[in-house]
Amino acid sequence: MLPLVAWQLGALLVLTVCAFRGRALREHADRSDRQVDRGLLGLALALYLPFLVATNLHHAVAASVGVTLLFALFAPAVLRRVDWGLLLVFVLMFIVLRTLTAQPIVHTWLASLGLDQAQRLFVAGIAASQVVSNVPAAIALAEVSNAWRVLAIAVNVGGFGCVLGSLANLIALRLAGDRAAWREFHCWSIPFLVVVAAGCYTVMFWGR
What is the pLDDT of residues 81-140, one digit of tens each? Predict the structure, then answer.
């Protein structure tokens, strides 16, 4: 994947130069709002490995409830700052989509799209990413194709374009808290998707 990722990175650097004026970064003198809560850090680190082990052993619900209860007891402010709406989006996109693609009628429809052809899989990965985000799209399409290199590149490219292309886009724009940023984001991201997709398609399939 390195040559295609390098192409995307190069295109992103060119876009960055075009989109932003060069100016020096300034560090704020007041760091009071960035002090590390060592107690909270210790609690998070202590829970991290047990949570991963429990999840890997198929006890994800119990692990999630346990972590939530411990934070409710020892760090309730954290739970108040959680973006529960965004968390619900994650749940719907990953869990509901996985359940949906497991349905026979949906699986049959996906299989009828001819995704055994690499070009079609590439286009389908990008298109699906624009609707349900790139990681859920990869999960769904992996049910009908094992061409992981093509699928990996497709959903990587699909992270650009619409805000839903990647949940990282959605998180960043929500953190920005500026409605105008959503419009400006798409003015750059959609043309960038077209350029990067065309470049990757050319490298992968041109002349074959």
Answer: 888 888 887 777 777 777 777 788 887 888 788 888 999 999 999 999 998 889 889 988
Do 159 and 168 form a contact (C-beta atoms < 8 A)? yes
Identity of the amino acid at 52: L
The b-or-e profile of 7-21 (16+ CB within 10 A means b, else e) is: ebeebeeebeeeeee
Which residue type sits at 141?
Answer: L
Residue 194 CB coordination number (10 Å): 11
Q: Does the predicted model carry a pTM greater than 0.85?
A: no
- Token output for 88: 């619900």
Tokens of 99: 């359940």
DSSP 157-186: HHTSSSGGG-HHHHHHHHHHT-HHHHHHHH
Query: HSE-up of 205 (CA within 13 Å, CB side)?
Result: 15
Phi, psi of 121 (to 5 degrees): -65, -40
**pLDDT one-digit tens code per residue, 159-197:** 999 998 998 888 888 888 788 888 889 999 999 999 999
Give the count of beta carbons closer than 10 Å to the beta carbon of residue 48: 11
